[in-house]
Specification:
Helices cover 37% and strands 19% of the residues. By secondary structure, the protein is of the alpha+beta class.
């Protein structure tokens, strides 16, 4: 099983889309092994987006993601990183497929409602920014019997 990191951005919470977005992941057979609502600290934002430092959108992005509560989570399943990326769709909501989270709910590129890790290595790093190992749960879901 593979794990990946996902978080719902402040505008997702403000638009009351938490349940709609979570249900998309569950319908795809992904297991939520950790989840909490938090305010992202400046330190966490800088750590999460370190590869974008110096780019024109970096400072506005940090301001946005620290502007209100977010929901952080760890999802688990076969090929979880790839499955989540497919489920959320392309960053630009105009390019994201209809039926994807960003395609259905996204409004702008810079405030695209959800972040997801793009590799297993980044998932491990991003999970460690928001979760301690003892916060990750292990349990079975009905789908586990089919895999």
């Amino acid at each position: 099983m593979e794990r990946t990191f996902v978080y719902l951005k402040p505008n997702t919470i403000k638009r009351q889309l938490i349940g709609k977005v979570l249900s998309r992941f569950e319908k795809r057979g992904l297991k939520i092994v950790a989840m909490k609502m938090v305010h992202m600290s400046d330190y966490q934002a800088e750590e999460l987006y370190q590869e974008h430092k110096g780019l024109d959108f970096y400072e506005p992005l940090l301001k946005f993601v620290t502007s209100g509560p977010i929901v952080v989570m760890v999802l688990e399943g076969p090929r979880a990183v790839e499955l989540v990326r497919h489920t959320i769709g392309k960053t630009d909501p105009l390019e994201a497929e209809s039926g994807s989270i960003r395609g259905d709910y996204g409004v702008t590129v810079r405030k695209n409602i959800v972040h997801a890790s793009d590799s297993v290595e980044n998932a491990e790093r991003e999970i460690s920014i928001f979760f301690e190992e003892n916060e990750l749960c292990t349990y079975s879901i009905r789908l586990d019997d089919l895999l």
